[in-house]
Specification:
globular, D-Maltodextrin-Binding Protein, domain 2, alpha/beta, 9 helices, 234 residues, 11 strands, 5-stranded mixed sheet, single chain, 6-stranded mixed sheet
């Protein structure tokens, strides 16, 4: 069974996938790709070229778009987690004040360079929040298909933004904190079964297991919150 997960759920699935294999003796082929974008490994691009995938785990708005296109089964969506955006700096660097919306805006204006992802958090930041706060586009940069934290750790960018669960595994950075009220956007990450999935029954069983309380401890440890699951599965 092939599972492709986007970045926010990667750390959790790297633990949960092997747990599921041990519990069920079903083999899981885990692969990774962004929820959106045009890179070669982005989930929508993979499905468009006909890649055989049993389960996709991705930002819910992007999953809904694939459902509308008929590429993911409409009755298969299950919300797994809620994810917040956080800001990071190079390890050891001063931690700017982001405790309030005004302080956060000042930090953005004073920063020399800002990196953001090409997935759910980055789309929101670049199209909604940065324009709203008047952040000059010239100091921001979209990082495609790579962890934003790596570019902050290298010193290429002064500050970077991504989902908390995607920043936590990156070495060489400090997570300053989550975005303050008025700037934060919670993203739901959900699982679905592509319409061409070779193993839909096994896919359903895995999704149900990921949505069960037994997965909550790992989910919370990786910086995510279990969603109030609304399952379409029978």
């Amino acid at each position: 069974m092939k599972v492709v997960t986007s970045g926010a759920f990667t750390a959790a699935f790297l633990e949960l996938g092997p747990e599921y294999e041990r519990a069920t003796h079903n083999k899981v082929n885990t692969q990774f790709g962004p929820s959106m974008g045009t890179t070669h490994n982005a989930i929508p691009v993979r499905l468009a070229r006909g890649e055989a995938i049993d389960v996709v785990i991705m930002a819910a708005p992007a999953l809904e778009e694939l459902i509308k296109q008929g590429q993911v089964r409409a009755d298969s969506r299950v919300d797994l987690v809620e994810s917040n955006i956080a800001m990071a700096v190079k390890a050891g660097a001063p931690h700017p004040d982001i405790s309030t919306l005004d302080a956060f805006k000042r930090t953005l204006m004073e920063a020399k360079s800002i990196a953001y992802s090409d997935s759910a958090s980055g789309v929101y930041l670049s199209t909604v929040l940065f324009p709203k706060l008047g952040v000059p586009a010239g100091k921001t940069k979209k990082i495609e298909a790579d962890p934003v934290g790596r570019f902050v750790a290298s010193g290429e960018f002064e500050i970077g933004f991504q989902q908390v669960s995607e920043l936590r595994p990156v070495k060489g950075i400090d997570i300053v904190g989550e975005l303050p009220p008025g700037a934060q956007r919670v993203t739901i990450f959900a699982a679905g079964i592509p319409s061409t999935a070779p193993n839909p029954a096994a896919a359903r069983a895995l999704i149900e297991w990921l949505a069960s309380p037994g997965a909550y401890k790992v989910i919370e440890k990786t910086g995510l919150t279990p969603a109030q699951v609304h399952s379409a599965l029978p």
